[in-house]
Design brief:
The protein is mainly α and 131 residues long. The protein has helices spanning 2-12, 15-26, 28-37, 43-63, 67-85, 93-119. Helix 2 (15-26) runs antiparallel to helix 4, helix 3 (28-37) crosses helix 4 (43-63) and helix 5 (67-85) runs antiparallel to helix 6. The longest helix has 27 residues, at 93-119. It is globular.
Length: 131
């Protein structure tokens, strides 16, 4: 029974990245404009790289192939989003509160990903490792 719930966690955790990646594919121009506004050079290319990364790493974690590495990469990416998009420490009022909530949500996602880094993909995965 534990193996099934571990599988359920491994399949649902990366959905946030896969859905964001699909959304980014549907509007790469908007994504690139957001990156450009934050001073990211070659924003259009960076947008495609980020979208591809979210999709590939998310799918790797879902199927459990190189899951530890995928989870570690997604952790680093999620940490980066806190500093690039949710830097609440530079904000005031409602913007601070909203971005602090998003940053804390990202920390919770990172904690879940850390468990996959430590425990592996589980029995029902391409990697086939027991947690």
């Amino acid at each position: 029974m534990a193996d099934f719930f571990y599988l359920l966690a491994r399949v649902t955790m990366p959905l946030v990245f896969i859905v964001a990646g699909i959304g980014g594919l549907m509007n790469v121009t908007g994504y690139a404009n957001t990156l450009a506004a934050k001073g990211i050079p070659q924003a259009a290319a960076a947008g495609y790289v980020i979208v591809a990364f979210q999709l590939v790493a998310g799918v790797l974690l879902v199927v459990g192939f190189k899951a530890r590495w995928a989870a570690l990469a997604l952790m680093a990416f999620t940490a980066g989003t806190i500093f690039m998009a949710h830097h609440f420490w530079d904000m005031e009022g409602v913007a601070r509160a909203l971005n602090q909530t998003q940053a804390l949500k990202n920390l919770a996602i990172m904690a879940g990903l850390l468990l996959f880094v430590l425990m592996g993909a589980g029995r029902y995965s391409v990697d086939g490792r027991d947690p």
